[in-house]
Queue: 2 jobs
Job 1
Amino acid sequence: MSTRWIYGFNALDAATERCGGEWDEVLGLLGGKGANLADMTRLGIPVPPGFTITTEACNAYLDGGHVLPDGLADEISVALKSVEAETNKTFGDPANPLLVSCRSGSKFSMPGMMDTVLNLGLNDDVTDGMAKIFDNRRFVLDLYRRLIQMFGVVVTGIPDEPFEVVLGAFRESRGVNSDSELFEDDLERIVRRFKEIYRDHAGRDFPSDPMDQLTLAVQAVFASWNGKRAAAYREAAEIPHNLGTAVNVQAMVFGNIGQTSATGVVVTRNATTGAPKMTGDFLINSQGEDVVSGVRQTSTIEVLRREMPELYAQLERHAEMLERHYRDMQDIEFTIERGKMWLLQTRNGKRTAQAAVRIAVELVSDGVITKHEALTRVTPRQVEFFLHPQFDTESKRRAKDEGRYLTTGLNVSPGGAVGIVALDADLAVRWAGEREEPVILVRPETKPDDVHGMLVSAGVLTSSGGRTSHAALVARQFGKPAVVGAQEVDLHLEARLITVGSTVINEGDWISVDGTTGEVFLGTIETSLPEIDDAWLTALLAWADEVRELDVWTNADNPDDAALAFKFGANGIGLCRTEHMFFDTARLPIVQRMIMASSDSERLTALDELLPLQRSDFVALFRAMEGRRVIIRLLDPPLHEFLPNEGDLIRKTTDLKIRLMKAGDLAEVNALVKELDETERLLNRVEALHESNPMLGLRGVRLAIVIPDLPKMQIKAIFEASLIMLEEGAEPKPGIMIPLTSDAAELVRLKAVVDRIATEVLGDRIDEVDYEYGTMIETPRAAITARDLAETAEFFSFGTNDLTQMTYGISRDDAERAYLLDYLKLGVLEHNPFDTLDREGVGVLIRSAVEAGRAARPGIQMGLCGEHGGDPASIAFCDEIGLDYVSCSPLRVPIARLAAAQAVLNRPESFISTADPHTDMTEGVAADTA
Amino acid sequence: MSTRWIYGFNALDAATERCGGEWDEVLGLLGGKGANLADMTRLGIPVPPGFTITTEACNAYLDGGHVLPDGLADEISVALKSVEAETNKTFGDPANPLLVSCRSGSKFSMPGMMDTVLNLGLNDDVTDGMAKIFDNRRFVLDLYRRLIQMFGVVVTGIPDEPFEVVLGAFRESRGVNSDSELFEDDLERIVRRFKEIYRDHAGRDFPSDPMDQLTLAVQAVFASWNGKRAAAYREAAEIPHNLGTAVNVQAMVFGNIGQTSATGVVVTRNATTGAPKMTGDFLINSQGEDVVSGVRQTSTIEVLRREMPELYAQLERHAEMLERHYRDMQDIEFTIERGKMWLLQTRNGKRTAQAAVRIAVELVSDGVITKHEALTRVTPRQVEFFLHPQFDTESKRRAKDEGRYLTTGLNVSPGGAVGIVALDADLAVRWAGEREEPVILVRPETKPDDVHGMLVSAGVLTSSGGRTSHAALVARQFGKPAVVGAQEVDLHLEARLITVGSTVINEGDWISVDGTTGEVFLGTIETSLPEIDDAWLTALLAWADEVRELDVWTNADNPDDAALAFKFGANGIGLCRTEHMFFDTARLPIVQRMIMASSDSERLTALDELLPLQRSDFVALFRAMEGRRVIIRLLDPPLHEFLPNEGDLIRKTTDLKIRLMKAGDLAEVNALVKELDETERLLNRVEALHESNPMLGLRGVRLAIVIPDLPKMQIKAIFEASLIMLEEGAEPKPGIMIPLTSDAAELVRLKAVVDRIATEVLGDRIDEVDYEYGTMIETPRAAITARDLAETAEFFSFGTNDLTQMTYGISRDDAERAYLLDYLKLGVLEHNPFDTLDREGVGVLIRSAVEAGRAARPGIQMGLCGEHGGDPASIAFCDEIGLDYVSCSPLRVPIARLAAAQAVLNRPESFISTADPHTDMTEGVAADTA
């Protein structure tokens, strides 16, 4: 039996049978668009009749040297007859003409790559006939001139330009802007001119035989599969080249034949709010492009309900059926041709984040999808939207129109922030106290001693720094919208102003910073705050909790963060960075005294002052977490971070020297000498602490070993806080975590200190405190020697920021500015490894450390506490390798809960199907039709 | 049968039989000293008779609650009888007394941990008798007082102090310095006082019964095994605690009974030069300690030959026999008691590096050892000695006596250097040209733009930096003696002086820097240059070449280095660092112009100027290596290294501003404004290039990708140089090596550039140039993704400096100063991982990369080119994992050749035995007897 090349839209069953019941095969045979049209037809939806020429026919044509395969011409004739029978029209018959469209449609959506020819079947005679039938020659001439141009360009390969030149000349002669304003007479002449252009370029007349038109159009669509543009697209999208395209031939319908015709678009639910009510727009006597272009004022679909209630009811019925069938909100195109409703296309509709959540949850209560499916219908990014005020799109558009757009940097912490520019942290704090206006802190980059300024600011903008720079990390941690590395922003600190290109912005001027997109605007942009206590989101996340296997913990350094994270569903603190506690304004001077100490006793005095403060920090955290695990990392950063910047100090000393030269009286001289002396002492210490590569320097466990009094104070504070909790009747669960470990001996050494202090502080109540001792895995060597480390460590926490830095050998503070963006642009790297965990490198280390750790200590607790802990792709990796938890900043906890559930649902071997048991094999997302 | 506790020195065969013929067991049973004495006795060497109480007896004593095991007391009596019979003397008989010593001796040498009691058997009666026999009461009283003190301290546990106080008082009363100058009368009274001290402390009289003395002494030696000091030593040396110690009881002989007695020490060859002639010293009428202490002027052994030719001949015979038996140069102690020669001890003798080489080679020609054994008799460090002038030990001792020792830093590049202090590189260059004196460059640390100063200096001293700091690397590279990280050295650059503690050293003052030990001296120290063209060394290294499987290549950036390395036996250049070529005084300005370029064309102009210079660099290298592989690494360091230091520029701008304030006339103002302008422009660029962690920044392949014109120039220069070589009829073999790779895409991208330029430059001669393309493996990710990299790379070169930095997360520039020394001191780390490759961490990465690389590309060439390439332990690792070559600095090539041979010989599964076939089971290194 010879191959069947064509399936009518009403022949889905036959195609399915041919494909052994596999929907994927059907998609392959008919293409997405063809399968979709056939699917709608089978549902009884009024789809203009037509047929699909299979991808096999395409491949046979291309393989056979661009000759139509045997039997195809005959099958086209037969299929066309069938369409004629259904439409009661005849292809090429001037008395009752059928016009058809010819569209490509491959298995995978290739938007913009598809070739289309409309209005096939028109020639001079048919034009005359149709003009009479519709009593509207202008309308038919318009179709005709479109056919000649489209056919000329797509099928015959004539450039578009000569056609457009003619149209332009006519528009000019009439003094109008759009082709729809041209007169019938103009069109008459345009058709003539177009035929001439065609002949001049093609060397033959425009084919007047409709069958010739159709055959040539089909061949052109076939050939377009191997066009340069399509091949390049497939290359990029990793679509195999041997799939071929199907060709869909479909009867044309027209929404622009008078007042009983119309075209419109509806969405089955409210795409903005998610409310379960059909919404949409339409236009009487119009074509699809009129609705989309916004040239004419559309009516809401409510008007259709009032004016054509029966058609509306029909549309509503179809919409409901399609939503149930495709099991998601549908975006439907329809055309009413002289009172007859036709549906041209349906696809899953785009929606806002809020709508996505509500729709997913309500589709479950409507019995359309399962809870598991609902969990896959919302992206983690959509959840993120709920957590930050966002700029109003319209307001941003207006700002751009007004020329207030300044630049775009790295969008490191989402949300929109509006405020007045403050160029240093102290000023930000002062203005936040004194003035009504919110503040945006603008810095070249931020350091830990800018944190107090960041905390009081509405948002942060820096001119340097990367995606995991200090500014980015702290901003995300505290949910402050932030844009960093905006290189076009030049700071002039002495002049107290910034410039962006030629725009000068003085301190105190208003700017708006969009942390979601990275854009920066002059002046204000309106924001709106999505509702976090959204009932639908709450429901969705509860379902996520049922599914996920990863626990979600949080990175929190203070009770407010801990409480917020706890409210968002965090089940423990995976990382309390004690350094942040040291930057408190009241404490920094003590910390600096500790660093500047010239004797052990001086250092101990400072540490003794810090002890009660640390203790109360920990008490507050323990209280907030209500008996959950609180993992406290001993001091990590290099000490110079607690001291002023070296360059600033150099500048200050020379400045003081200059002032000294000019000083008038003795008192002033004395004061200046004293200040100079202190500054130089500080500078000496900063220079002594200077390291070429502080990231690889004296920090983490190395600090703890070289300055043993420092960790002792911290450990003591932890156990004293635990004792206070015991006395309050609570059950403290501290975890003591060693940072930057690279050798098991480091852990062994500090374990002895921890146990000794625990015994000293807790005495006979030691058994009541369930404390654990563990380590960060953040140097490659820690990962490699994980088996040894697990002999001592009771838990591992993968610090993927540092691990990524060291595995790649890239500094997160510099890389994005220096070359990482170039790498991404050039395609040397696909993803920024600081955003998404690098599976091939860093991931290999983590995976092997997990195995080695479990081998040495079965049941060892393992989590990830780097920035990746809030990244969905990285969370999927954590799920895959069987970590116990991820720990992320409080505002990312809800995101992580959803992502962890999705990770389970997306497991290749998942037994938890996201599909309903009753779904049949026609299930599939409606293909995107360009 | 009950256990036998005692073996006479003449009962080695019985002990051996008891041990089933295993020498190791014999050592365990009799201890090293006992076995050695028995071994000498069996050889017919005249050893004073005696016996060994076994380690088993010791363990039985210790386990049995400090009671002598059954039968031991009887066995001691029997053994003593045998000694009495041999010596014709009787223990405790005043008429003919036998005195014995009692010494511990365990399986492993524990120097200084061993308890010894001499002169056992003396009491008042025996003293009187012996005084008569020897006709020398003073001599016997001296033995007696020594016995009481030694017995009191060792056996009874009396502190040494009261005895010493008494001796001191007598010396003072006589106004003499040494006990040997005390009178007989004094000793009479001292013996009385010592007995009183003994009674006062012990609560009983000094035991006058010789058998009591012996029994107590034996018990004391047994108990000393568990003494605190010995246990701690075993802990440190990882010697098991359950071995126990043997006790050797031996007849005393005396070299100080008149003019026919003597004591001396001989070495079977010249320990300084290695010449095959017995050398040594002796003293008539003296004790061993007199020879060693240097109080009396010794005679050379030649005097013995003249004056006691028969005894000399006897000694020579014994020495020869012992050397043959122990198959190495022996260091022998002898005593002549009234004309009778006794040998007391023999052991392998210490020797200088030169002697070690000559002796090893000559022992082979003497038929004593095999070539393979000879290769294991010389340490790589001894070879290193040949390559650098060394300070004279005596001269150093004198300098210390004169208070000229200043401080000790890190000994990073061996050899002694003497010169005048220059505090900057430019001055060093000027002085090297203008002045006669050699220069020592003293800097806080060095940067690449100090290199020209280092090259002209005799040595380098820095106050900061670690073992692999820039200064250390460059110094080793160029064989310049260097001490770095000498923290006590304070530089005062403005004052042009340095201080070390209170010592002030002005620029131009002489200092001496010992790169072998790290010591720094004020003034000059004498040096001597060992002979590198040493025939014996040449022979030894030729044998090494026959054995080794690793090829030895060199790291060389200029033709002189290449030629030197080639002469030393390097078989290729494994690493040519192109950055060193950029620091040439003539080129640096062009390089800076390239970096400061404000447009592409400006940059290209600078690169065009560099091209012919680079080309001639490569031509020179190709010529020097005569057709061997020359692997050229594209530019690696961050660009800021080619610009001045940021702090210096800040200081300069402020300095210029101050001068501007004071400036008088307009011309001066204009000049200053111009200079300020240029300085600020430079500062801006330096600040723009500033990175927080340059080690992890924009360098290596990243530079090549971000500034593609730069590698293009270098690649072009390589191929143009190759073409010139072709024209000269040579066969150039360039390797193009990509630094700091972390992703395969980087390699793919640059491979295309290399191949394109090769085609462009070489045209149809492309097949004549055997060029290879490869990569450094120096980021952990490169090691992890080695399989992917090997798809493109034709060779791997492990850059273990960077790999160590990133795997541990430690900066080699900072770590030693900041905490690594603390770590080593505290025992947190056993070795400095920058000295000796870390097998457990870095080694795991390398090993897996080797396997993955071979899997992807069988036969892929792999080498190591970090500093570890010259470290013997690391070379052994390279041999173990099957690398093809190691590449090290030229001066380390001979060391690497030997180390590579030793690696083969030391392989656990090695079939190449280092022992001669004819050696019997008594073979073993003579135990060290303290």
Job 2
Amino acid sequence: MLRLEELSLNIPDTTKPRVVIIGGGFGGINLARKLSGKDFQVVLFNKQNYHGFWPLLYQVATAGLEPDAIAEPLRKMFDEDYEDFHFRPIRVTRINSESKTITTLIGDLRYDYLVIATGTKSNFFGNEQIKKYSFPLKQIPDALNLRSQLLQSFEMANMTKDPEKRQSLLNIVIVGGGPTGVEMAGSLAEMRKHILPGDYPGMDFSQMNIYLVEGLDRVLPPMSPESSHKTHKYLEEMGIIIKLKTLVESYDGEVVTLKGGEQIRTQTLVWAAGVAGATIEGMPPETVERGKYIVNRFNQVQGFTDIFAIGDIAKMTTDLFPNGHPGVAQPAIQQGQHLAKNFKRLLRGETYEPFEYFDKGSLAIIGRNRAVADLPKNVHLGGFIAWMAWLFVHIYYLIGFRNKLVVLINWVYRFFTYERGTRLIIRAFVRKDDKQGQEFIKLQRMD
Amino acid sequence: MLRLEELSLNIPDTTKPRVVIIGGGFGGINLARKLSGKDFQVVLFNKQNYHGFWPLLYQVATAGLEPDAIAEPLRKMFDEDYEDFHFRPIRVTRINSESKTITTLIGDLRYDYLVIATGTKSNFFGNEQIKKYSFPLKQIPDALNLRSQLLQSFEMANMTKDPEKRQSLLNIVIVGGGPTGVEMAGSLAEMRKHILPGDYPGMDFSQMNIYLVEGLDRVLPPMSPESSHKTHKYLEEMGIIIKLKTLVESYDGEVVTLKGGEQIRTQTLVWAAGVAGATIEGMPPETVERGKYIVNRFNQVQGFTDIFAIGDIAKMTTDLFPNGHPGVAQPAIQQGQHLAKNFKRLLRGETYEPFEYFDKGSLAIIGRNRAVADLPKNVHLGGFIAWMAWLFVHIYYLIGFRNKLVVLINWVYRFFTYERGTRLIIRAFVRKDDKQGQEFIKLQRMD
């Protein structure tokens, strides 16, 4: 077998400035794409070998899109046309600013410029029980686990004798009323209305309850009150049970207890309630505020000239955004592109230019013909127009010709047929401790 | 949590004859589709909740197609239009012919007619070591594991210092020169030529060796000598190392030893060398010959009038096929359709008609513009014409409008761009014992 000791990073030495980028999300790839290998050596670290289009991840969880449609291999995005570009599917474990190196399990690497673009990870606020039993929705394997869990639950509900147990299989509780939670809830509601009755003719899906639990006083808190109100109306039209100003106290895999005491029996708790910055060891604590690196308008981390942070992991405060930029794709994309420009200016002996966020507006989709959009200058759209805008923007930004086509076809196909193509339990979902999934695969495997 | 004791099959009682089908492959679904719910109650058991188009499985393993493109949810194929049809994603553990019931983990079910359509499973000929370390290619998770293993091996090779270890990572040994082995080898050769050099600019893929090991004296033994000869030529043109009349003695996960003593260091041994019928407990031993149920021309299992076997699990000998029909899709499809006709004849008080196999010919693809076809009347095609025929036939037979489109687009796209879209390590491949995969994920996960 191969041991880690036998591996090394194998990054060629160079006389060019070496830019080390940690993270292949929207920020990282937009920075790397704009840096020419003639001027810089670019080294990109990312745990997965693909770039994920996370705004559509909920589509994978609800069997609307295949995982491959929202992910693009990083080596395909940065092919031979990218001179002196080096991708390593490796986790960076430590930053050593004094020696200007980063540490990985197979060796250290010197950097001239280090860019932290690690984004966020699910935040369970220290609740180990919820971490253990709930379904987060941050990565493709999360979405595939949730897809399997949902489909397995329907199959189990179709075979259970106990009405209370059936109800707990048909109760889906989504915690978090942000874009992910709202879009997940809407997608499940469409599945309940258009797909499941045809798949399970014997079953009564009016029993299927979709709960959306939000701690604040409105859904989609990052968006305008107008859009929140429209979204609330859409969700209720689609039969989603919305609980505002409600926090989750505990979940034991069987019963979720809400603050205030209300209890809901469910086998599936979707955790879209919060994220925390994916910080890296070695940085001084004073550079971090609430899980994000404090950066100036040049994205330089406080106290450093050669360490930068972009996207969700960066906290840049401006007059327009006193609490930092919204945690969506656009600021990350723009900061990545802007930082590339600044690196080039530096080479030309010019000074950095401060980052200015250009707000293109934000969108959320609740269902077919139901979406909301906040555009600049306080323009708020809803309904079909917003839905078309959402569709266009997402297909446009999906990276990779093929993926766009596959996604487009899936969309057109689903729009006209109300069909979902990918209701596959490819890997049964199984928790390590003997829970429902274990029982499910017992049904299929005897050996 | 949910316990199996809380589940039951929940199949409604009926006065109609109940046809129980075990297996949702080509035979099972073509039988079920032709039986009307007005005349019969149809109960289909299949371990997965989807029907797989297995002839294209190798495409998933080599990152050419996404898994969802070759699989169709069974509940989507048999929707509300199919009256009194019942699918259960459950394994049948036993047949009790005396009581005319089948046994599952959640209860027994009575049948009037039982159809065994379980197909085949990988056959390691009792070699536990090969079973443990090799990569079979029978199910979608097999293909995804192999895809991850191949991509992980390239990433590791790109980071290893030891030339011998790099070689063992770049050596791929495919055991079995049948259609699966040949198509897998051809697809890997195209990947080596058109994809990998662009993905790994620093690496020399002339070092990558693809071995195809076959025990008999020609590749594609089921096809005509002409096609075998053409295929052999194509494979050699593509730089595949073919070893005929060669058997594998052992493989310890590091070194494969061939009968005769030759050894090849490889981390990836693809096992396409044999299949065995997936028989079920409870049937008398005399009904089974070399892993298949002996059936008459009506597909009735020897000694039974109410138990049938179709497709790969059935051994029907005719003058034209003294050793049974070839283990491909066509006989299964035709036997399923024919048995449906016979069941309907029975209802009309008519007698069964004997099955007659209509040979539409057989096809195999080696690479772009390289395929072979054996057509009736000893017509043998090769090259571009056969390739187009292969493409047409496979797209035509892929079940489901959407999947056909996705597959077609992938094909057109790949044909013109030499690109493969789905080179994703979505789940790192990890063996239970601490092998290479374990090391690989260590690179990515610290927590």
